[in-house]
Each structure stands twice: as structure tokens, then as C-alpha cells.
Design goal:
heterodimer, A: mainly alpha, 2 helices, 0% strand, B: mainly alpha, two-stranded antiparallel ribbon
């Protein structure tokens, strides 16, 4: 199988690992946006 | 310029406008599950939900919607990556292609899952029929459907009041695929076959030329791929030459159809938006802003390509159009299509997020290249891709009403929803993400040897090639300037990062805005409410797009196409 894959299979693991990190980052980004809007809207309510 | 060329552009515009209302109504009713097709095929839809374990009546808040979207694309990217890497072991590979290299496989997987379709490979020499159909074709549908889903979710944010939810991602993607993209693709695919586009699972054929040489002619399931590549805003060609290849785009009629398909969903969604918020004039206002920006683009590109080039004029070449020649700049253009359609196709494909090409953009005059780059840099709002055009435009609407609110000292509001700090911050996050990646990565590539190694031209034209690459990637367009050999680990991986960021890091804040807006109650209009359906607002919106979206890139554009334009007139070419 590795020969049929052509290239170093370790590279596949590394690239898929990078992809996992990117998606984990995007997931974290969702939570940051969520918290950020909560904080912003809470402070906006306080000002009102 | 010729009158037939101008007529062609007017005819195209008329056909596009004619489709806005009927197709806009179709999308609105389909996404609601009320449309004719939705009712007729509801058993298939219900069976898909049962199979996937989806509860269609259970709606999601924006965080759940965003996580569902990300999870969906994790699977999509990994599957497309695996298909390419295991291609040599899988069936439907008549040409017995081996595995795609890891960096190229990742680039291609991210490219098609993000609706970009940047291609660092030639399709007919790299991918098997199985990968083309089960990998590329499937992602073309699903990435287009995702864009439509996100746009509809954002529209629900404006249309709903005091709602915690913005829809169900799985339902939206299923309906957008089944009722919006699939039916049009079936009809368009058959039309393309009628016009001469191949549709076969057979292998290449070998022909003997008049000179006795052997020529391998690639074939495959082309028509089905081409229909979806255009409608879904994907743009990835079955062949390396994309829509300049006679098997992808055999006649002037298919050329017209292809451009119409590229714009169809994007323009119709403005009407869908108007219907969903209960005022179709709001949709027409957005379309008017798109139309003005598009008209300015084609008004620059067509004369620029049809006019005489200074380098040829200097050596006394006759460049006037006549019975024996088309005149103007024919380098990199298909003789079958000529200057007018090539200029129109290039403007359409960069104004949308499609990226299919029927001429080589690298060979366009510098001013035309400036327009093509700017179209993409404006964040896909000049019609844009399916869904991404509408949500990109609505982000600029939020900025426009915010600016207007600041000018008159009132809390900005749009369609009765107050635009507050949270929405504006998320909007700016979405709008700044793309320029940050384009400019940052272009700067890095312009100084690193690994970035410069793929360039075919020096000077400002070479810089334009770099800038175009990252712009095309981060704006999820996918067209190439053609002068860049991007199949290297550096380009494959950095472009994959640009595409990932340009898609997902924009969609997340958009969904966040949808969620916060949906939670708000609509306030009734008052005498101080800014009307958002008139020419004044359209002008304000265009000004905001040009200033916020365009000026960000002005310094980079000056270093590339603007510098090249002036140097060309001074007799210096690259």
C-alpha cells in the first residue's frame, strides 16, 4: 500500500494533522466569536 | 469594440435579469420545503434524513449550525484527500493514474470543499473518473449548497424576531442540493451533451493526425462535471484548459449558457432575500449595487482588450477589427470566442466566485487584470458565488448602515434590526480576514525563494501573478493568472491555508451575526429610519464597498497591474 500511495506516508499523517489543527482552530474561533458577542452585547446592555 | 460584441454583453445581462424573479422564488420556496420539487421529492428528502439520523424539524442556534458545517467539511476534505491518495487502487481509472502527491491532494481537497476549485493540476492528466465524479463533483455540489445555506441562515437572522435558532444546517444543505442545484445541473448537463460535450466513462482515445502523429484525446464524464462547476460557483475544469477547451465549451451558445449558469444562483438569491424579509425592493437594491459594479468592470475590460496594444502599435501592426481579423489583444484567447465573449467571461467569472476561464487571464492587458483582481478582492460581492455573494453583500450593508448611523447620530438599523457593536465587530472580522491573508501571504511569497520559483514573469507582472494566486484562493474564486506554476509544496500548502481561511473564517462570523440578529426583536420604522431600497442607499453601499473593500488593496494593485500599465505605455513589457 505505501508504494501505491507514492511518496512518504508520514507526510500524509503530517498533512492530515495540520488539517485537524486548522479545523480545531476554526472550532475554537466559533467559541471565541460566541463569547465575544456575549461580552459585547452584555456591555451594550449595561450602557443602555 | 464591435456592435455584435456589445450586443452579446447586453443579451447576457438581459438573460440574467430575466432569471432573477422566477429562480429567486424557486430558491425561497425550495429552502422552505414548500416548492413544487420539494413537495414532489419529499419522500427522498425524508429518507435521507432517516439515513443520516437528522431530525429535520429541530432547528439549531448559530453555534450548533457552525459546528455542523465544520464537521461536514472535515469529512468532505478527508474523503476527497483519501480518494486522491488511493486513486491507483480504486476502480473507474481507465488511464491508470497513480496516487496524487500529498501536498497536491490536500490543496485539491481543501480547494473543492471550500468552493474555490483552485487547480494546481491538469484534470485530464491527473484524476481518474471516480475521483472526478465521487470526489470533485460531489464537493462541487456540497460546497455550493453550503454557501446557499449560510446565506439563507443570515437572511433568517434579518427576517426572524426573538428567535434563538437560524435553521437546520443539514436540512438547508439537503434542500439546496436536491431542489436548487441538482435539477438545473441535469438540464444543463443534457444541453451541453447536445452541444457536443462528452459524457462517458470510457478512456481516452488515440487519433492519428494528418501528419501521421499519434494524439491522445482525453474524454470522460465531462458534461455532468461542467454543469455543476458553473452553477455551484466552483469552476474547476475537467480539463486543464477549463472552459477554453472545446470539450468543455464547444460553441458560442454553450459559452453564453456557462456564463448564465455562473451568475444564476447569485443574482436569484437577492430576490430570495427580498421575499424572505417581506420586501422584494430590498433585494433589487442589492442587485442594483452588484449590477453597477459589474457594469463598471466590463466597461473597462472590453475596451481594454479590444483596443490597440502599445507594443504592437509601436512596430506598425494593424490592430483594427475587420473582416480578416478580430483586432485588439487576442493573446491567450480562444479564436472561437473572440474578444467580447472572453472579456465578458473573465469579468463574470471573477465577479462571481466561480473561477472557470475561457481565456488566459495572464494574457489580458494590465488594466483588465486590475479589474479581474479587484472583482475578487471586493469579497465576492459583485454577484459572488452561490450564497457567498449575498452574505458578502449583506456584510457590506451592515457596514454601510453603521456608517450612515454614525453620520446622522442614530443607532444604525437594517430591516428593523438594530445593528450594534457585536454585529459590527463580527462583520469587520469577516471582512478583514480575507485581505489579511491575501496581502500577508503575497508579501511572504514575494520575498521567499520558494514563492518566486513558480513565476514565469518578472517585474510587476510577476507580482500580479503572486497577488492573483492568493486573491483567487482567499476569495474562493479558483481562477488562475496562468503564469504561475503552483504545483509545488510551498504553493499547494500556502494556498490551501488561504482557501481554508477565506471560507471558514468568514462563514463563522457571518453565522454569528445571523444568530445575534435573529435573537433581536424588529423595531418598526420611524421618520428617522434610513430607507434601504432607494438609489441613495445603493450609492452609499457601492461607496462603502469601494472604500472598505477596494482601498485596502490599492497599494498592492499599484505595485502590480497599475505599474505594469504605465511601464507598458513606456515601452517596457515583462
Amino acid at each position: 500500500l505505501p508504494r501505491r500511495l507514492e511518496g512518504n506516508p508520514v507526510l500524509d499523517v503530517v498533512l492530515l494533522g495540520l488539517l485537524a489543527i486548522a479545523f480545531a482552530g476554526a472550532g475554537g474561533y466559533i467559541l471565541v466569536c460566541h463569547n465575544l458577542t456575549d461580552v459585547v452585547n452584555a456591555s451594550a446592555d449595561t450602557v443602555k | 469594440m464591435t456592435w455584435t460584441g456589445s450586443l452579446q454583453i447586453v443579451l447576457f445581462a438581459a438573460l440574467v435579469i430575466a432569471a432573477v424573479k422566477p429562480f429567486g422564488a424557486h430558491i425561497a420556496s425550495s429552502l422552505d420545503g414548500r416548492g413544487l420539487l420539494a413537495r414532489a421529492f419529499s419522500p427522498i428528502e425524508a429518507a435521507l434524513y432517516r439515513l443520516a439520523g437528522v431530525e429535520p424539524t429541530k432547528e439549531q442556534n448559530w453555534v450548533e449550525y457552525a459546528f455542523a458545517l465544520l464537521a461536514f467539511h472535515v469529512v468532505g476534505i478527508v474523503m476527497l484527500y483519501a480518494l486522491q491518495r488511493l486513486q491507483g487502487l480504486l476502480p473507474l481509472n481507465p488511464q491508470q493514474f497513480g496516487a496524487v502527491t500529498p501536498d497536491l491532494a490536500l490543496n485539491t481537497a481543501v480547494s473543492f470543499a471550500t468552493n474555490t476549485s483552485w487547480q494546481s493540476y491538469g484534470g485530464e492528466t491527473t484524476l481518474s473518473n471516480l475521483v472526478q465524479m465521487a470526489g470533485i463533483g460531489v464537493q462541487s455540489f456540497l460546497s455550493g449548497a453550503t454557501g446557499i445555506a449560510v446565506a439563507i441562515a443570515l437572511v433568517r437572522g434579518f427576517a426572524r424576531g426573538a428567535s434563538r435558532t437560524i435553521g437546520n444546517f443539514w436540512v438547508d444543505v439537503t434542500r439546496a442540493t436536491l431542489y436548487v442545484l441538482l435539477p438545473v445541473c441535469i438540464v444543463a448537463g443534457l444541453f451541453l451533451v447536445w452541444q457536443g460535450v462528452p459524457q462517458t466513462l470510457g478512456s481516452s482515445v488515440t487519433a492519428t493526425t494528418l501528419e501521421g502523429a499519434q494524439q491522445v484525446i482525453a474524454r470522460g464524464p465531462v458534461a455532468s462535471q461542467i454543469a455543476v462547476k458553473l452553477l455551484s460557483g466552483d469552476g474547476g475544469g475537467f480539463f486543464n484548459a477549463n472552459s477554453a477547451h472545446p470539450f468543455e465549451n464547444p460553441t458560442a451558445l454553450t459559452g453564453l449558457l456557462e456564463m448564465w449558469l455562473i451568475f444564476l444562483v447569485g443574482v436569484a438569491l437577492t430576490n430570495t432575500f427580498g421575499r424572505m424579509v417581506g420586501d422584494q425592493r430590498q433585494g433589487w437594491a442589492l442587485l442594483a449595487a452588484m449590477a453597477v459594479l459589474f457594469a463598471v468592470g466590463i466597461a473597462v475590460v472590453y475596451p481594454s482588450e479590444a483596443g490597440p496594444g502599445p507594443a504592437l502599435a509601436a512596430v506598425g501592426v494593424d490592430q483594427a477589427a475587420g473582416a480578416g481579423q478580430s483586432g485588439g489583444n487576442m493573446e491567450g484567447k480562444e479564436v472561437r470566442f473572440g474578444i467580447a465573449q472572453s472579456a465578458l467571461f473573465a469579468t463574470v467569472t471573477t465577479a462571481s466566485s466561480d473561477g472557470a476561464v475561457d481565456a488566459m487571464h495572464d494574457s489580458f492587458m494590465p488594466l483588465s487584470g486590475l479589474v479581474l483582481l479587484t472583482n475578487m478582492m471586493l469579497d465576492e460581492v459583485v454577484v459572488g458565488g452561490p450564497g457567498s455573494g449575498l452574505f458578502g453583500m449583506l456584510l457590506f450593508v451592515i457596514v454601510a448602515v453603521f456608517v450612515a448611523g454614525l453620520m446622522i447620530g442614530r443607532t444604525p438599523e437594517y430591516l428593523g434590526k438594530k445593528i450594534e457593536a457585536g454585529e459590527v465587530k463580527m462583520t469587520m472580522l469577516a471582512l478583514l480576514c480575507v485581505p489579511a491573508f491575501i496581502l500577508g501571504m503575497a508579501a511572504v511569497a514575494a520575498v521567499l525563494p520558494a514563492g518566486l520559483v513558480g513565476l514565469n514573469n518578472a517585474g510587476p507582472h510577476g507580482f500580479s501573478e503572486i497577488l492573483y494566486g492568493y486573491t483567487s484562493g482567499a476569495a474562493t474564486n479558483g481562477s488562475a493568472f496562468a503564469g504561475l506554476s503552483a504545483n509545488t509544496p510551498f504553493w499547494n500548502l500556502t494556498l490551501a491555508a488561504a482557501m481554508f481561511a477565506g471560507r471558514f473564517l468568514v462563514i463563522v462570523p457571518v453565522l454569528c451575526v445571523a444568530g445575534t440578529l435573529a435573537a433581536k426583536r424588529a423595531v418598526p420604522p420611524s421618520v428617522g429610519t434610513l430607507p434601504t431600497h432607494g438609489t441613495q442607499f445603493v450609492g452609499l453601499l457601492i461607496g462603502t464597498i469601494v472604500i472598505v473593500g477596494g482601498l485596502t488593496f490599492l497599494p498592492a494593485l499599484v505595485l502590480g497591474p497599475v505599474a505594469e500599465h504605465f511601464q507598458m505605455w513606456a515601452g517596457l513589457t515583462y
